[in-house]
Write a structure and sequence with these properties.
The protein is α+β, with helices and mostly antiparallel strands. The chain has five helices and 15 strands. It has helices at about 25-35, 65-70, 80-90, 105-115, 225-235, and strands at about 10-15, 50, 95-100, 140-145, 150-155, 175-180, 185-190, 260, 265-270, 270-275, 280-285, 290-295, 300-310, 320, 325-329. InterPro entries: C-N_Hydrolase, C-N_Hydrolase_sf, Nta1.
Length: about 325
């Protein structure tokens, strides 16, 4: 790299927040295409990473294994993979999206044999506890990652399952981390509850300050972000900004900044309200507090692009999935 060129290096990230309809794959893909067609105003290569939400094109809140089974996709060849591959090639950037992955028969056998997931009654309201769905593994709640030439980079399976996932999904084996070219560098994929390995009954300050924020998006104005949800994410990410979590081999004054991108969906499904509020945080243990850079509102549908100027005086930021923000709503 030529002298002084680092000063010009920028990290450019986009999130697509929208309201996918449960089970309406083609309509959801059409909506996603309409939104991403707005990116034609910028030259290919102007983004480094574009993110879609969890189970972006199928919807999420399937009530049973039999309900989600018709929408399971094979990686590399399913609708989500095809869409992301084509879009990544068109935009010349990395693209990630969530989808319900169909497992091969041998994977299903192993997952069922090794399964240790159970549903906790505390995850359900009192009126729901008489009809807790039976767990039947048919797939995995997964994500794909495609590269700028439309090539498959890798996938990830959600590890810490929410109650909805427990009806049908095999658990993954931990975060997936990829070493990508600069300016992305180290990128880690996670899905929703992966930030929270404890059920509500197991929350305690000593093992993680996960109980400090309430999750009540339906009590907040729709034309604002869900502040309780943003607080919830920030608290769950505390090891990235609290200096007491620093490792012994981390040099003094050399703590790295981690850029955290949260891409959420909006809307409702089967009585569940989604909080939207897709956001970008920057976190550094030397600062001792999280920095919320920008966020979308609860019901906003569109694309938000963030450009982060990299600081040449510090280590390159890490990605976990003063910036400028450009809405394309």
């Amino acid at each position: 790299m030529a002298p002084g060129s680092l000063q010009q290096l920028k990290l450019r990230i986009g999130v697509v927040q929208f309201f996918p309809k449960l089970g309406q794959v083609q309509a959801n893909l059409k909506k996603a295409k309409e939104l991403t067609d707005r990116l034609s105003i910028i030259p290919p290569g102007s983004l480094d990473l574009l993110c879609f939400p969890e189970m972006a094109f199928t919807g999420y809140n399937f009530e049973s294994a039999s309900a989600v089974t018709p929408f399971l996709e094979r990686p590399r060849i399913g609708p989500t993979s095809t869409f992301c591959s084509n879009l990544a090639k068109k935009l010349k950037c990395y693209v990630t999206a969530g989808y319900p992955e169909g497992l091969k028969s041998d994977e299903l056998e192993r997952a069922s044999a090794d399964d240790q997931i159970t549903s906790d009654e505390t995850e359900f309201a009192d009126e729901e506890r008489d009809s807790i769905p039976v767990r039947q593994i048919v797939g995995a709640n997964s994500a794909v990652l495609y590269g700028p030439s439309g090539e498959w980079i890798g996938g990830y399976r959600k590890t810490n399952l929410f109650r909805t996932d427990k009806t049908w999904a095999a658990a993954g084996s931990g975060f997936a981390t990829y070493q990508l070219p600069s300016p992305l560098n180290v990128v880690t994929l996670a899905i929703c509850m992966d930030l929270n390995p404890f059920t509500s009954a197991g929350w305690q300050f000593e093992t993680g300050p996960y109980e400090l924020a309430d999750y009540y998006p339906d009590r907040e104005p729709d034309d604002e972000p869900s502040w309780s949800t943003l607080q919830y994410w920030a608290v769950r990410l505390r090891p990235l900004w609290d200096g007491t979590y620093a490792s012994n081999n981390e040099p003094a004054g050399k703590t790295k900044t981690t850029t955290v991108v949260v891409c959420n969906r909006t809307g409702e499904e089967n009585g569940a309200t989604f909080a939207g509020s897709s956001a970008l945080f920057q976190m550094n243990r030397a600062q001792g507090r999280p920095k919320l850079v920008d966020m979308m509102t609860k019901e906003e549908e569109g694309i938000r692009i963030w450009t982060i100027q990299l600081d040449p005086s510090t280590d390159m930021p890490k990605m976990s999935i003063d910036p400028s923000s450009s809405p394309l709503a």
